[in-house]
Amino acid sequence: MLKYVHMVKRNHWDALVEKLWTKKNIIWLAGVRRAGKTSLCRAIEGVQYFDCELPSVRNAMEDPEGFLKNFKGARLALDEIHRLNNPSELLKIAADYFPEIKVIATGSSVLAAAKKFKDTLTDRKRDLWLTPANSADMADFGLSSVDARLFNGGLPPYFMAEKPSERDYYDWMENYWARDVQDLFSVGKRGAFLKFAELLLTRSGGIFDASSYASPCEISRGTVQAYLAILEATFVAHVIRPFSRRGAAEIISAPKVYAFDTGFVRAFKGFGELRPADKGYLWEHLVLNEVFSVAQSRRVNYWRDKQGHEVDLLLAPPGRRGLALECKLREAEFNPKNLKVFARHYPDFDLAVAASDVSTTHTKSLGGLNIKFVGLAGVSGLLETGGYIIS
Known about the structure:
Low-confidence stretches: none
Strand order of the largest sheet: 6-8-7-9-10-11-12-14-13
Distance between the termini: 39 Å
Number of helices: 16
């Protein structure tokens, strides 16, 4: 059974909120359903929280200027703001005429797709993407077991449960369909869309071939691409494209697609328990989630050449050194041959391995390469200090 999760101070996200408020007074908080957006808003120090699902709150905001005049210098959390008749008007007025008011707003994951948003507030806001739980969240919630995080996933009610039922994951998908997909995109074929989403979960991390989805879902290739775009826009799927500077010698056009959460991948693949191979597969997803949570961007690639050498994750900021990151469940499982081939062609990348059993970041010289070994929390430290993030 899923647990009610009491408010927990989530230090990584609190720090990001404070940082973003120094740049703009409006923050748009996005993320999948049940990622903890409401709890995060309510736990911000000094915030005054408003739930726009309530008619009384919506009535109070019918005159945005009059409402905001009551809160000069305040911090406001406006939850489910898309329930207002004209939510973008309130946020524009707050940005342009009340810069001393700090606002964090949540609503549909996709601001541009919400029918009530007549303005996407470009250059008036900063975006914050609340991913499933990262290593900092695991520490804040007292979750010490990586296996439990891999098995249950990173949504707080799920990873705090002793063992969520399979029904909990399917119910989430039904709610996602009803409240996100239909509300925002008006997709007509419920069965085809959910079949596609479930197939994508079971194939997560593999090369994406639209043709292989069209027949089992009884939809066209064009519809497959449209459905994938919806899953990507709502943070349920992540498209990771290949990195290449050498053209014909490398894979240049075949993307990989990862699902958003290890628990949902595990549930839909039917893993009743985690074997070592399953853990290694899900560990790569968890490392990718850690990268997303820190970088706040999906500008991540993978690399593969025509001989089958592959590097799991790349960050390639223009004009700076990049990072090539391999994911291994155990440090002893790492073989440097793929990084050696990659480094021969791309000496402007630093090399690292993320392994679940690394407790202290350290560097090894292997085959003439200096390779940094980090644990999950070390991935965050590596990204924050290495200059690989495009801010």
